[in-house]
Amino acid sequence: MGKNDPTTEQPDRTKYILAMYDIRGKQGYIYKSNKIREIVGGSWIIRDCFEDCLFPAAKQCSPKGIFTYKDQKTASEADAFTLENFEKHLSEGYIGEVIYDGGGNFFVLFKDVNVYREVNRRFYRRLLKRTYSLRVLTSYITNLNFDDYKEDRERLYAEHRRREQKESMISPVNTLPIVQTDYRTSLPLAEMQQIGKKQDTNPEKVTYESKKKYEKYEREATKTEVHNDKLLDNMITEKGEESLLAVIYIDGNNMGAQVEACLSDLESKSYEVCTKALREFSEGIQKHYIDNRIKEMDEILKASKKPERRFVVAAGDEITFVCNARNAYQVAVEYLKKLAEDSDADTPRTSCAGIAIFHSHAPYMEAYRIAEECCESGKQLMKREGMENVSLIDFHYCQGAFGTSLEEIRKEEETTDCSKPWFVVMPENENADQGDNRFISVEIVQEMQEMLQKAGRSNIKNLAFAAKKSTADFQSEIERIRAHQKKEQRSDFTLDGKLTDPELQRKLIYDMAIVYDLWFDKKGEV
Q1: For the residues of 419-454, what is the DSSP string, one character each?
Q2: Could you give the C-alpha distances from 18 to 111, 266, 272, 390, in angstroms and in order?
Q3: 373-391: per-residue pLDDT in tens?
Q4: Cβ atoms of 147 and 47 closer than 8 Å
Q5: What is the distance between the alpha carbons of residues 280 and 275, in angstroms, rounded to a whole number?
Q6: Which has the closest alpha carbon to 353: 340, 335, 326, 338?
Q7: Strand 66-67 to strand 96-102: parallel, antiparallel, or no bridges (unpaired)?
Q8: Contact at 8 Å (CB) between 508 and 440?
């Protein structure tokens, strides 16, 4: 930074600034394509955005750059943030320090605003070159009070909200009429890219942004065991017979409230105490929501005939992956159950899961969107009912109608009023065994599965057809089935009084019949 390099001067605490970096439009950036390699590459670009762009930019300003507690080489130097350690790092040549990185938040303490601006000039140049259109919004505050981190954080959030209102949404470039463009994004086709194995495919024209995503995928694919390079067609049950896959989207509940709870119980509001608590909280989220759960899910999948899976996103409290459709329900339910079991006494851990069942050659991006909307339906139910500490699951069998919302699809199919979402972890004030229960739990689903098996496969199809028509037709079909069974073996669709509402019975059986062959027919398990 020249002769006036501020790193050689004594630190001036009045000049310190706290900066926040916020990656914008993550989902839009990742899911611009239906190509899974490109999607995964985009998710990895976001994951490594600061490592690949911000830290190298800082090192262009000063050889040491920004100190980060997540760097394994330097983690032992400072187990916790303190003002004294920060100033020690400044004396060593660092120009800033990562205060907290987790939950979508990235906070950096810089030695002064000039350093911050110089780093950002280089950062945004690298961001454009390496990602093309990924947007990162940054804000900062001065006059820091190191005895009150929460107050400074609120000031920074307020400043960030003001900057959000002024944020530019313009893409880097437009195209000319003579330029070939991508039909989905309208970006110019600027590069040739080998997609898949050379012996199987020829290079294709792609956008500059897509090229960067593919390059990131190729660099990172061999480094991790979580993501593998299995083609989606390898996951199907039998080519030409059953080519069904499932996208499972799982997202944690009430994470903002959990962060606030993490800080509210602290004896001190200082930077040292708060950052230590936040870092431990972030590590716990990654451990409980991702690392532990992936191990358990892989154990379940290994016991099936089709254990392949493809993780797309696995970070923080969010996980998205693709697997054989027959495995999806069990894996998602077990994830939510094990997550709840992994809770501390004062820290309930819950999530909502959405599953979209689709044919392997259907647009993946659309299937993902449906899975995300299924997950959101669970969160909406929680909000309507004022519930906390519950986990829900919803699903949809995609049989066409891509391009419209889940709500519109269900209106068209006349299935808006269904039994879903189902509770995997029930609210404390509800009892799944009560006959007037308004909700369906997975335990109820399991008991109904046993009743349907007693009724027989042909009767299940008849029940589904009658359930689609009306409650009266449905009840008539139930009585017909029971009349043909021996008295001592008659199916009890009230589940011994746990499900006495005929309308709820009808909805549940119809919802189960749609996926009966995949999830509830024991003879058809993979």
Answers
A1: SPSEEEE--TT--TT-TT-SS-BHHHHHHHHHHHHH
A2: 9, 21, 14, 36
A3: 999 999 999 999 999 889 9
A4: no
A5: 9
A6: 335
A7: parallel
A8: yes
Rounded Cα distance, 270 and 278, in Å: 12
> Which residue spans within 360-402 are E strands per DSSP?
391-397
30 three-class SS: helix
Q: Which two tokens stand for residue 201?
A: 């495919």
In 444-456, which positions are buried (b, 16+ CB within 10 angstroms) versus exposed (e)? bbebbbebbbebe
Predicted TM-score (pTM) of the model is 0.86
Query: Please, which residues have CB within 8 angstroms of residue 482's CB and are 6 or more apart in sequence?
Result: 490, 491
DSSP state of 513: H
> What would the pLDDT profile of 126-147 be if each residue is shown by its tens digit?
999 999 999 999 999 999 999 9
Query: How many CB atoms neighbour CB 436 within 10 A?
Result: 9
Phi, psi of 229 (to 5 degrees): -100, 30
Which tokens sit at 47?
């994951």
Please give the Cα distance from 144 to 147 (Å, whole number): 9
